[in-house]
Write a structure and sequence with these properties.
alpha+beta; four-stranded mixed sheet
Length: 107
């Protein structure tokens, strides 16, 4: 009777902290270019921190940014690509040809 499964859409996942200026800048950049993203505050709970450390192999800094693409993931919703921090996000977006220096938001 058809497909009822909701397919996960392309998105960025930003692990960060509300006190982190680079986390804020990453969010502004993604919003500026109208990318879907999910923000996860690592200080939210012990469970979130545990998930963060497991996923990032004990990263010491935030933001830690991941990318999910349903096409490149071949339907595997757990397959995400690690981009890195804010500077790596800027490089990533430049490579996607979406980030234009003459239209750089104030980040």
């Amino acid at each position: 009777q058809g497909f009822s499964k909701i397919v996960r859409k392309e998105e960025y996942i930003v692990y960060g902290s509300d006190r982190c200026s680079y986390c804020h800048r990453a969010r502004i950049l993604l919003e500026h270019y109208e990318y879907n993203y999910r923000y996860i505050d690592v200080a939210e709970s012990a469970e979130v921190q545990q998930e963060f450390y497991k996923k990032t192999k004990n990263a010491k800094t935030v933001p830690q940014i991941y990318y999910y693409d349903p096409v490149r993931s071949y339907g595997n919703e757990n397959l995400e690509w690690r981009i890195g921090g804010f500077d790596e996000l800027v490089v990533w977006l430049k490579e996607k040809r979406k980030y234009q220096l003459d239209k750089d938001p104030k980040v």
